[in-house]
Fold these 2 entries.
Entry 1:
Amino acid sequence: MSKDRLAPGATPTLEHVAKVAGVSRATVSRVINGIRNVDPQLQEIVRAAVEQTGYVPNQAARSLVTRRTNSVALVVSEAEHRTFDDPFLGRIFTDPFFGRLVSGIMGVLRPRGVTMVLMLAENDAARTQLIGYLKQGHVDGVILISSNVDDPLPGLLTDAGLPAVLSQRPAKPLPISYVDAAQSAGAKLAAERLIARGCRRVATISGPLDMPASQDRLAGFRDTMARHGHAYVPSVEGNFTQETGERAMLQLLEEHPDIDGVFVANDLMALGAVLALRDAGRRVPEDVAVVGFDDSNAAQMSRPPLTTIRQPLEDMAAQMARLLLARIDDPQSKPTSVIFEPTLVVRESA
Amino acid sequence: MSKDRLAPGATPTLEHVAKVAGVSRATVSRVINGIRNVDPQLQEIVRAAVEQTGYVPNQAARSLVTRRTNSVALVVSEAEHRTFDDPFLGRIFTDPFFGRLVSGIMGVLRPRGVTMVLMLAENDAARTQLIGYLKQGHVDGVILISSNVDDPLPGLLTDAGLPAVLSQRPAKPLPISYVDAAQSAGAKLAAERLIARGCRRVATISGPLDMPASQDRLAGFRDTMARHGHAYVPSVEGNFTQETGERAMLQLLEEHPDIDGVFVANDLMALGAVLALRDAGRRVPEDVAVVGFDDSNAAQMSRPPLTTIRQPLEDMAAQMARLLLARIDDPQSKPTSVIFEPTLVVRESA
DNA sequence: CGCCAACCGGAGAGCGCTCTCCAGGCGGGT
DNA sequence: ACCCGCCTGGAGAGCGCTCTCCGGTTGGCG
């Protein structure tokens, strides 16, 4: 059906299409890219020729001259030493927040014809290889999801002069765009909820404290509690997995058996905490109220369903994509940051 | 530090490196690609020049002539009509099996310097765009994770002449390589386990029946039960989410209150089933034994921990990557299939 | 009616790389 | 001592595309 005329075995090129249409390469190129005005009648002829030959532009050749690839990388980076017992990949992909992120990014990228390349950087070797790859001009820019404070990647990216956007405020000030949620504002909502319920002995399970987000949530929670007269808020550190949430809750119960409210820094850990509470014979929320963070699937699946803090992840991801595209279009534009406000989602656990 | 000598603002090219090293472009290229013998002393000089200039090969230029990109796509495809209420992305990324898959693939790809591009095809529009992208020669080959029977993608891929490997036997015979697990053998293991425990009233919760894997598991289970004298095995269809597992279990309990054993086609649904059983006041495994499928994190997290069928996902994924690379190296090689044997993992639920 | 401007299509020069072809040098065999 | 062949490095031709520059045509205005 297609692919007759010229081009014996090979894939058709601009040249072939031009010959079939009886015009020059340049004209075909102009029609395909919709650049400059081309006689509508000619356009029709060219389009027909494209159809007939089954022509598809060669991306490599195009990139070579335009210096654009029309694709961006989504890099997920994690510090090596934070890999406890479960494999990195299991963690990141298991966490529902990732899907929402991808979904938000795609929503912006797809209509613009930009494709997304997913890359993992789970240790230093991978990181080195990654930088090499990125420098080869494989992508136009990078969205970096980095979860630890001393990640060298943000610095490496700015050094390499690659347009990039971070998923959270970088640990050290850096000329780089980022999107973040007001973590402490979220923690404040959680604290206020627990106080409103009348909780008197409140504790918290935090995320890994080398992450700015974890620090902010912890600080925000403690501040708000302090402002309401609760000077001392016990806390145990987890690593965002259900298992560590369970362990942390166990520890809290042992050290402070009279606890009646807990703020857990993410839903997965909150799930573990609820399980631990149940095992210990405490009813949620009657005996102990639990507030999670993220509003992930886990929150809805839990029994009782989790009261939690929702970050507008899809919106945030979409904003990252938009910031990145803007920066690609104009590399000179100065780095921007956008902060989103979290909201309280009330369910049954608190 | 680097990037001095020549090349004022621009990124260094082969030409620059050659000039710095005092050799020809060809020689630098040979050293970089390790092709043909080059005088070791010259090699040293060239390497030093590369270092000094901070040279990184331009992938576009390279691809243009080699017709290779050194990257493969991991395409995750899903039929549009199967999107019930939860978003597609949430499902796929939430399922732990995905992480294991990626991990296995990366293990093979990374050492070979091949990068992985993740692409989603969640509806027909996306699929069309995807095919266009693939035809542009953006990747050398495709690993396709497709979950429904009437996916047009396998056919489109063979039509496009792109090297590809499927994650399961295609619904219709097609000249394409694939890797699969012996689904029915896994179901057989589950059946035998339930029988060995002395279960007499057995039911099953299947996956979506438009998936060959679901069909095979159901058929394998029924066959084995039949062979042991259980003529009738009630079944309810789920869609692999915890929620549908819960619903399905509820339905089974209502229709067959005397059930004492269930085979659930994946762990996530099994988790839901266990929850439903508990809510209904049945003890697992004392009153009802439950066998899952996949040996995902969910199986270990569940209480009680799930007895389940383990597919060697990492191995299977690695094999897919190997098959694909082989096919890319020699496009003439004929399609191969590799079937892996599942194993029974005994925990507490059965 | 003439001039200028605006507009549109074609020619051709690269983008940075690989790879074939060729020339020169050296060693070994007769 | 000569010749042949192998080994190594250089020259140069593209890979398929975009985009600048140019020339020709047309329309509007003086």
Entry 2:
Amino acid sequence: MITHAMEDYLKTVYLLQEGQEKVSTSAIAQQMEVSAASVTGMVRKLAAMGLLNYTSYQGVELTEGGKKIAQEIIRHHRLLELYLVEIMGFTWDKVHDEADKLEHVISEEFEERMSEALGHPTTDPHGHAIPAKDGALQEIAYETLTEVDAGNSVTIQHVNDNNPEMLRYLDQLGILPGIVVHVVAKEPFNGPLRLRIDQTEHFIGREVAGNVFVNPQTI
Amino acid sequence: MITHAMEDYLKTVYLLQEGQEKVSTSAIAQQMEVSAASVTGMVRKLAAMGLLNYTSYQGVELTEGGKKIAQEIIRHHRLLELYLVEIMGFTWDKVHDEADKLEHVISEEFEERMSEALGHPTTDPHGHAIPAKDGALQEIAYETLTEVDAGNSVTIQHVNDNNPEMLRYLDQLGILPGIVVHVVAKEPFNGPLRLRIDQTEHFIGREVAGNVFVNPQTI
DNA sequence: TTAAAAATTTAGGAATGCCTAAATATAATT
DNA sequence: AATTATATTTAGGCATTCCTAAATTTTTAA
């Protein structure tokens, strides 16, 4: 039987797994804000269930079965986020926490009816891809704004969704998925980035910039 | 800290409490499908938290604090049921189970946005009253169809929502809240009831009739 | 009123999921 | 290669929520 906690672990491993193949227990612990010891215990259980492969001290890797469950939960989460914004009128900073709770309890029918109401969407309000039903999610490892050299224009792809305050700030600046941003300059010593969006200039710090993922191609 | 299990206990006690003042542990156990021993344990904990009054062997009674939490959960449940039917297109037999899971995890904002989308409704799809925010729920103890004498007409008030199969059956017959039913006859030895709804006659068993609550007043 | 039946509680235990502290394995550095 | 630092696991515990079986209290009935 899959518990909510197990679903959370599988989701976390799935999202951390992008790029790398093996995920360390400490990375999981940090992401989930639980102790490393707790992760070891849970990972053993999930390995015994065949949902991931685990070798002591070597990290974990999801099996196909584990991936399927993770994708299902991520689909729930992202559909919920979009539904909350588009249909229910939530602001985009509030939906992550709400979706984190709801993702574990909604039925397949609930999922399907949300998808229908939204016209079977493919991205959530923060720009993350919504996995298709039983379809893999292949998110490209975009670079963040901090990595863009001055003088280049980029398109915002997605932003991290777990910090409501930062989301409100980004919304205020108009830094939203799909928007084109020109990086005018980057101040040295981890100084602010000077951005131009639609003739308006903004200065944002490196921490914020590191949470904004962009498409390197200029449009 | 209030857990989901505690919320379920408070909700159950609240609904059982209507009419009587004290609720026995065995009644709670039967309703929740857990052992009587489990109820004793939980009831002690809830009493220690000041959410209900409990005397050994004498049953329990919610305090004002306990009532408030119960009402909140019942409001969630019934708003969810109506939202699922009216906005999301669920059939009325599916919404009870979905609402039972969701009622514990939705935020106050989610509750408020549902209420708004529904125009601040006062009854759910099965005819149960939706408690107002911080408002008491006073459900009159209606009689069931089994108690109506032959020859009388009654208005369906509400139906029990926990048996999907029975709900589909009632829907098929058109036995829905607000509908007027004439009890033509009642066959002896716990035999069927002969009903007339809009010129059409139906025969239903006593078990079903016992789950249909009606208003004794003829309209 | 006393014995039997029913209801309720107590005792002891299991599963889940988290924790801290101590032990051990791996990686990095001199 | 030895030592230090870091990462990971093991051991032992705690809270929650359920269970069964045995003991106790209350109710019912002879």
